[in-house]
């Protein structure tokens, strides 16, 4: 080592160990606290922060009868009433464990009070108008949005409304519609096949909402039960006949519902 460096190193070598900085002291003390703290306890949380009025021991659920009696006793002793201080639980709370009295049982047995109450309800309902209807001769009202049997509509000149856009086939979640089309003489499309499997249909009404020309609709007819499964496989002719039968009803329902479409 050159001699010129020794004068520079002499103050450092002769000095004692330097005093640690405040940050180093805090880190050192924190590490000591962490090592001395038991597992599961926050070492930096202050101790004895809980409420002082709770004494350790099992928690006893208060009895409302005892508390009421104790309050009455304390009030009586406070006002100088010695009789209220000796009041028992039986005086404050009547005993219902024995059930109705013999007089109550005898009155119910000889005067038929329960039967009279029941017959009074029957008498009230007897003079009220009936709630039932004589179905199928009488039928209740149906909403214009009722979704029943399907139908295909025509224009007033007899031409089919369906333009074979296949939007109803695409939107059907049950895949119950099958459409085939061909070109007309004027270049427009027309449907050659429109099959609807009523056994798959879930009557969601998506086909009616997707149709841009109101060709496929759902009527208010809900009485089309069949004896065979094949009768529920509707073709184009069946759907057109349904539309011809209920055209006036379908037009009225669409007119009543056009505010919400």
Sum this structure up briefly.
The protein is mostly helical and 261 residues long.
| Number of distinct beta strands | 5
Cα-atom radius of gyration: 46 Å
Query: Helicity level, as a percent range?
Result: 25-40%
**CATH 2nd-level architecture of the domain at 150-260:** 2-Layer Sandwich
Structural class: mainly alpha
Range of strand content: 5-15%
Instruction: Tell the overall outline.
Output: flat
GO biological process, one term: mitochondrial respiratory chain complex I assembly
Region (Disordered): 38-93
GO cellular component, one term: membrane
Family: Belongs to the complex I 23 kDa subunit family.
Topology:
Layout (H helix, E strand, L loop, with lengths): L5 H9 L7 H15 L27 H15 L3 H4 L3 H4 L9 H10 L1 H14 L23 E3 L14 H5 L5 E7 L5 E9 L8 H5 L5 E3 L14 E2 L1 H10 L1 H11 L4
Antiparallel strand pairs: 1-4, 2-3, 3-5
Defining key terms:
261 residues, mainly alpha, Alpha-Beta Plaits, two-stranded antiparallel ribbon, 11 helices, flat, metal-binding, iron, 4Fe4S_Fe_S_CS
What does this structure look like?
With 261 residues, the protein is mainly alpha-helical. The protein has a domain at 150-260: Alpha-Beta Plaits (2-Layer Sandwich), CATH 3.30.70.3270. Helix content is 39%, strand content 9%. The protein is built from 11 helices and 5 strands; from the N terminus they run αααααααβαββαββαα. It has helices spanning 6-14, 22-36, 64-78, 82-85, 89-92, 102-111, 113-126, 167-171, 206-210, 236-245, 247-257, and strands at 150-152, 177-183, 189-197, 216-218, 233-234. The strands form 2 sheets. A 3-stranded antiparallel beta sheet has the order 2-3-5. The protein has a two-stranded antiparallel ribbon with strand order 1-4. Strand 2 and strand 3 (189-197) form a beta hairpin. Mean pLDDT is 78; it is low at 80-86.
């Amino acid at each position: 080592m050159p001699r010129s460096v020794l004068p520079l190193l002499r103050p450092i070598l002769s000095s004692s160990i330097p005093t640690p900085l405040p940050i180093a002291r805090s880190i050192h003390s924190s590490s000591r606290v962490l090592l001395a703290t038991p597992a599961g306890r926050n070492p930096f949380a202050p101790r004895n922060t809980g409420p002082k009025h709770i004494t350790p021991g099992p928690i006893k659920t208060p009895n409302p009868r005892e508390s009421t009696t104790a309050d009455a006793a304390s009030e009586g002793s406070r006002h100088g009433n010695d009789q209220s201080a000796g009041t028992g639980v039986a005086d404050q709370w009547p005993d219902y464990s024995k059930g109705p009295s013999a007089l109550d049982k005898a009155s119910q047995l000889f005067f038929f009070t329960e039967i009279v109450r029941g017959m009074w309800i029957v008498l009230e309902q007897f003079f009220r108008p009936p709630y039932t209807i004589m179905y199928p001769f009488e039928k209740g009202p149906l909403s214009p949005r009722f979704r029943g049997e399907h139908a295909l509509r025509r224009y007033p000149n007899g031409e089919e409304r369906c333009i074979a856009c296949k939007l109803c086939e695409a939107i059907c979640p049950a895949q119950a519609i099958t459409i085939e089309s061909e070109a007309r003489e004027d270049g427009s499309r027309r449907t050659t096949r429109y099959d609807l499997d009523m056994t798959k249909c879930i009557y969601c009404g998506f086909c009616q909402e997707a149709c841009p020309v109101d060709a496929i609709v759902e009527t208010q007819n809900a009485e089309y039960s069949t004896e065979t499964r094949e009768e529920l496989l509707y073709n184009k002719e069946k759907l057109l006949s349904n539309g011809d039968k209920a055209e006036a009803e379908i037009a009225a329902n669409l007119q009543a519902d056009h505010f919400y479409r």
